[in-house]
Amino acid sequence: VGTVFSFQTFFKSSGRGELLISLCYQSTTNTLTVVVLKARHLPKSDVSGLSDPYVKVNLYHVKKRISKKKTHVKKCTPNAVFNELFVFDIPCEGLDDISIEFLVLDSDRGSRNEVIGRLTLGSSAEGTGGEHWKEICEYPRRQIAKWHMLCDG
Questions:
Q1: pLDDT tens-digit series, residues 26-49
Q2: Cys-Cys with 36: which of 17, 30, 82, 149 at CB 3.0–4.6 Å?
Q3: Are 26 and 34 in contact (CB under 8 A)?
Q4: Residues 57, 62, 68, CA angle at the centre, nearest 5°?
């Protein structure tokens, strides 16, 4: 019984899936290049089984959304390959007051798109989101990619 319980606990904590993101901060032009590369282990969403994922990318400056972009929808897959690049203009010097939110959604024609998982990157983000952000600040002009666990939407 103990084994089953720990397996369920593990499955629950990793049940939102993961997102592979590449970031590059260009300090000379004050731009942030964001590449949404892949998603993996996305949960089944509806009765039909597989989800039709896409990613919304929101750029925030001091908690106010200043830009938004989104990827194309990938049909019927728990492991999507997006490879979509977005360039954001940063309205201030440096990235201290900037954060990026990634929302992985299930495209569902006829009803509201359901949030599969969420990820925030920025100087105040915890875990891998904060580590990734720190790295791109320390190494401008270098494209750095990392996998991130998605949290509940």
A1: 999 999 999 999 999 998 765 667
A2: 82
A3: no
A4: 20
- Alpha carbon separation from 24 to 11, 14, 46, 115, 147 (Å, rounded): 32, 27, 35, 26, 15
* CA–CA distance, 103 with 57 (Å, rounded to integer): 7
The DSSP output letter for 73 is -
CA–CA separation, 110 and 63 (whole Å): 31
pTM for the structure as a whole: 0.88
Distances (CA, A) of 139 to 4, 14, 76, 96, 132: 44, 30, 37, 15, 11
